[in-house]
Write a structure and sequence with these properties.
Helices cover 32% and strands 20% of the residues. It is built from 23 helices and 33 strands. A 10-stranded mixed β-sheet has the order 10-17-11-12-16-13-15-14-18-19, sandwiched between helices. Strands 25, 26, 27, 28, 29, 30, 31, 32 and 33 form a 9-stranded mixed β-sheet that branches. Strand 30 and strand 31 form a beta hairpin. Helix 5 packs across helix 8, helix 18 packs across helix 19 and helix 20 runs antiparallel to helix 21. The protein is globular and about 90 Å long.
């Protein structure tokens, strides 16, 4: 007998996905002995037996692991056999390493929606877990949201205090049982339980009380997977209106929770690819477009949008609520607008007291905040708009520099990223750093990452805006630790993020289109606020070839929330005829005569009216001129309404967007004035807003593609990267991509991570590690 010992360090998505039970079953079949242990960042296998059996295990293991599990290439170590041999097979977990704020947790899997087998048991009256709201197994259930330490093990989660009953312990210990070493195992006798706080007792059943509240038009606060949610009946306009008023969210679209695909309204399109994403174990919100000619099926849920965000249940509790109610529910984050998600019952009872009419709680603590992930499909491929529950903390599927390096992203949609050992982890969305809690979470998470054992950071990267909280945190940490601090220009980082995701070598051509980002010094460009930049990305930096023609933003930051100010700035830059044009009446009417004149004087004198080249503000201006939105209640509202109108129009006319010579730019300014004139004339002539909105999108896409084609011809480029938050607009992205293909170019955009600032940190990492080789 040729006896050998095999040591494997298994990396990838291998904890919390039934990997150790799988190894145990395969090893037992092959008569191997030894140990399978969860350790920080990996699963360690040390197995002994016949060499042929060990080699067979190496071949079978990658094939046997099913999604969402994923195994990186294996590097076997062959060792002399132990004498005496280990007595059997043992499943273990290494000593706990406390997670704390845990921006990045390489060992852990994302939270998984209920698997089909658990759902069948949930609805089976003969099963002992019938209607148990916390049913789970090795292949589904909470993971990252309940982890207090790594590596993954029950004792390292918020389930540690729930001692297993005899039946659950028997299942846990039985290698033939599907809950063998299922760390989240439990049942009504020994697991977490629901609690009810509110009027009515539901006959002593908390779930029944919650359903009764929803049926009566009440607002239910639900302790969900990664924090609290607020639920109302989607088909009750008065309830939806109360939710908006109490939550202080007057217009931003709300998402629907449905029990199954059959509950999805017939008014929306549902492709086979969208079905697959809805049924994905991540259970994201998927944006589904309305069918042509259809209106929003639920009053007040997504006003002005031609899409509806829909998700299937992320937990058994969500499943019981959705199935028990029998109709679509609105499910939105459990907070007031602008505040962080409520995490624990005491916090929710305090902060949501004026919003919710009842609270459906449980006694399984949530370890960390995780909002719902959001995606849409572009050309049949999923594109993440928010990467959180169900995806974080898993590594991105891309080749990476070895690192180690850390990037903090920006202040909007903060999501830091870590490069280590040829892999990249993107933190779940923290939110905007304007509030103290997200800043505290980022600060604590940064300190924890800097104190991690292992190789020290090679670099720390952040946005170059000195007013950003992320910049200040990074600068302080770099000074204290003597680390090099890499300041990465905002739009360069957007472009590098797309290049990194697609494994593209530099140089690359990118259109970076977003709201506002800090540009190069004004002496070089004439203005500091960028947002519509055609860049040639190289390993050493970014050459700016073109940008949108700059225009003033009267009031500076105030213009970010008031599209009327962006429109006024655009009109003022176009000249007196545009200011007095009949088509500008909606913008003029949005100001008092006194304010109109004062702002014009401020623009003329340059007082608090900085110039910008922002695509997002151009969208705002168009929305104001069409009288869609004069003051925004949420970021991107104007663009959302403009896109919604454009999708209702027939094939549009296209206004030219010529390139004007400008100092310091190879191609110059992409001029919006002919497009503005077309919008004003159409408005004055009574052309429908739908046709004008469609013209705006088509003209901008054609202008972007035309400028990119000219630059590509001179540079020899074949690919154009479309980066930045404006390309969340599906219509703009699809039209731009089509125009680029028509010009013989290949478009690329972000898919695994958001094109908005939520993906900024990946580009910062690539800038910080530009001199290091990509791992193969």
């Amino acid at each position: 007998m040729n006896v050998a010992r095999l040591r494997l360090w298994c990396r990838g998505v291998v904890q919390g996905v039934g990997f150790r039970p799988l190894v145990h079953r395969l090893a037992a079949e092959l008569q191997l002995v030894g140990e399978v242990e969860n350790v920080a960042g990996a699963v360690r296998l040390e197995l002994q037996g016949e060499r042929r059996s060990l080699e067979l295990l190496l071949r079978r293991l990658p094939e046997a692991l099913q999604p969402p599990g994923a195994l990186e290439p294996l590097a076997p170590e062959w060792l002399p056999p132990l004498v005496p041999a280990p007595p059997g097979l043992r499943i273990a977990a290494a000593t706990a390493q406390l997670l704390g704020a845990s921006l990045i947790a390489p060992s852990l899997a994302a939270d998984l929606a209920p698997c089909p087998t658990c759902l069948a048991e949930l609805h089976d009256p003969g099963n002992r877990r019938h209607r148990y709201p916390f049913i789970s197994c090795s292949h589904c259930g909470p993971r990252y949201s309940i982890a207090s330490a790594e590596p993954y093990a029950r004792a390292h989660t918020s389930l540690a205090g729930f001692r297993l009953c005899a039946l659950c312990q028997q299942e846990f210990d039985d290698p033939s049982d599907r809950r063998f070493h299922a760390e989240t195992i439990g049942c009504p006798a020994c697991g977490p339980r629901l609690q009810w706080q509110g009027a009515g007792a539901g006959g002593g059943d908390p779930l029944a009380a919650g359903l009764a509240l929803l049926a009566a038009g009440g607002i239910l606060a639900l302790q969900g997977v990664g924090g609290f949610q607020l639920l109302v009946a989607a088909g009750d306009p008065a309830a939806v209106a109360r939710l908006r008023q109490r939550k202080q969210r007057p217009a931003k679209p709300l998402a629907l929770l449905v029990a199954d695909l059959e509950q999805i309204p017939a008014a929306v399109e549902l492709s086979a690819a969208e079905r697959l994403q809805l049924q994905h174990p991540a259970a994201p919100i998927v944006l589904l477009r309305l069918r042509p000619g259809q209106r929003q099926p639920f009053t007040g849920v997504a006003p002005g949008s031609t899409a509806l965000g829909v998700m299937l249940p992320a937990s058994p509790l969500h499943q019981l609520l959705a199935a028990g109610f029998g109709r679509p529910l609105v499910a939105t984050s459990g907070n007031r607008s602008g505040e962080p998600l409520c995490l624990d019952p005491a916090e929710a009872l305090d902060r949501l007291a004026g919003i919710a009419d009842g609270f459906l709680l449980h006694n399984r603590p949530i370890a960390r905040r995780l909002d719902d992930s959001v995606l849409q499909l572009i050309e049949g491929r999923p594109v993440l708009l928010r990467r959180a529950r169900g995806y974080a903390p898993q590594a991105l599927a891309l080749q990476a520099p070895p690192g180690p390096a850390l990037a903090l992203g920006g202040d909007l949609k903060s999501a830091p990223a870590l490069a280590l050992g040829g892999r990249v982890w993107l933190a779940p969305l923290l939110g905007d750093l304007a509030g103290p809690l997200p800043q505290q979470l980022l600060s604590e998470g940064l300190e924890q990452l800097l104190e991690r054992p292992g190789p020290g950071l090679a670099a720390l990267a952040c946005d170059g805006h000195p007013g950003y909280a992320s910049y200040q945190l990074a600068a302080a940490a770099a000074r204290r630790l003597g680390l090099p601090l890499q300041l990465v220009q905002h739009h360069r980082a957007h472009g590098l993020a797309v290049a990194a995701e697609h494994g593209l070598q530099l140089p690359q051509l990118v259109w970076a289109c977003d709201g506002l980002g800090y540009g190069e010094p004004a002496e070089a460009s004439g203005h500091r606020l960028w947002g519509g930049e055609l860049l040639w990305l190289t390993a050493s930096g970014a050459e700016r070839w073109a940008c949108l023609r700059p225009f003033p933003l009267p009031g500076g930051e105030r213009a970010m929330a008031e599209p009327r100010r962006a429109a006024l700035g655009l009109l003022a830059a176009a000249g007196p005829e545009s200011l007095s044009h009949p088509g500008a009446a909606a913008c003029r009417a949005a100001f008092s005569p006194g304010d109109w004149q004062l702002l014009l004087q401020a623009i003329a004198s340059g007082c608090h009216s900085p110039l910008c080249s922002s695509t997002g503000r151009l969208f705002d201006a168009a929305a104001s001129l069409l009288d869609l939105c004069q003051r925004s209640s949420f970021e991107g509202e104007a663009g959302l309404l403009l896109e919604g109108l454009a999708l209702q129009a027939p094939p549009p006319q296209v206004a030219p967007m010529p390139l004007l010579p400008a100092a310091g730019l190879q191609l110059g300014w992409l001029d919006w004035q002919p497009l503005l004139q077309s919008l004003l004339n159409a408005r004055a002539a009574g052309v429908s807003p739908q046709e004008s909105a469609a013209c705006f999108h088509a003209s901008l896409a054609a202008g972007l593609a035309g400028a990119a084609a000219k630059a590509a011809g001179r540079l020899g480029a074949t690919t154009v990267l479309l980066a930045g938050g404006c390309f969340q607009n599906r219509l703009l992205l699809e039209r731009s991509a089509a125009a680029l293909r028509a010009a013989g170019l290949v478009p690329r955009w972000a898919e695994q991570l958001p094109s908005n600032d939520g993906g900024l940190a990946l580009g910062q990492l690539w800038a910080a590690l530009a001199d290091l080789p990509i791992t193969k």
